[in-house]
Amino acid sequence: MSISGPPILTPPVAMAQPRGLCTDCGLSRMKIAGKCGMACQFIKPDYPRMEAAVHGRARDPGQGDEGHFGPYRAMYRAALTPPAPGAQWTGITTRIAQRLLEEGAVDAVLTMVPDPHDRWRPQPALITDPAAMPMALGMRMGYAPLLAMLEPAIEAGFRRLAVIGIPCQIYALRRIEAELGLELFVIGTPCSDNTTTENFHKFLARLTDAPETVSYLEFRADYHVELRFDDGTHREIPFLKLPLADLPSDFFPLTCRTCVDYTNVLSDITVGYMAGEGAQWVIVRNERGAELLELINGEVSLSPPGSGGKRRSSVAGFIENTRLAAGGLPLRRMPNWLRGIMGWLMPRIGPKGLEFARARVEMKAAETILHLRRQHPRRMKTMIPDHVWRLAEPYGLTSQTGEQESSAISGPPEETLK
Description:
The chain starts with 7 loop residues before the first strand and ends in a 26-residue tail after the last helix. By secondary structure, the chain is of the alpha+beta class. The protein has 14 helices and 14 strands.
């Protein structure tokens, strides 16, 4: 089979095989679908071993923020200058991949483009022309079998690939990397909770009377959601005014509520927003990641990430709400008169920069424990890595009998939390 020719390749892939706790990374659609049990992040992840394999060492909780964000060499607050038109933030991820194609360092970039019939639906694609990379700009919402494109890529004779993916895709990719025979450049994005494209459309319909005209949506680190519309107008909605309590309990799948890798620790470079304070957040994890960032030297402004506010009360409040939700109890709604006040206060007194990112990672750790404890307690021993227990322990979430394979671990003392 040859798929050479067009600058964007979207060959058909096999049907997904039914799996429990699956985000359809694409592996079950491949000829090696039998590897799912070994490669899936939601079965028995082994982060210490995989971090050592990819980065040369596992995370060191006593070194900087590695306990929260995984192994890294450097972190930056970053922005492409000027920002790429149509970018979700400034376009760093897409530009790095484009530079790889321009330099001839890769044969293709494996990433997501919009479905031709629905701009919000992700479609996995192989991009071979640098001029076509802007097609990948922006956010998509929904599941997309990214890894299923690996087999067509190999059949087409591609041997050097850049892969842009979210954590569950990248974990599986790293687990099967050795047998692919490919040279990989892995650009990871931190994952916000995913849902189906159909659910996302319903969410948009709760935010505006004209959801079909929404061209951009972003959950920003200043506690607002930004909407942009086809006519050039935009709207900002404080988090506290979002109709999240009106969403069905399964709006976010259990996989996303039990994700243990929010920051995509097995990528060579992670590019996101959580600690960017309005710009982007770049985590250089290894030597290849440093080389990727160097490709856009002169096009990107870099500065140390900032940090401010205190996360403890925000995380503790989230944990209590999650505990109630996981127990099936109704969540108490904030009175409407108070929402405006809190919406004004949160960007001013809430955690910012790295402290915001730490808060989100701790929230995800707690969410994982509480939801698995409620719905799949037998999976806790194999699904929850030690570093997740460390993050949750200062908030009183410790392993119970049979929930943890290794011996009990002691986390940082509570007084070290901000």
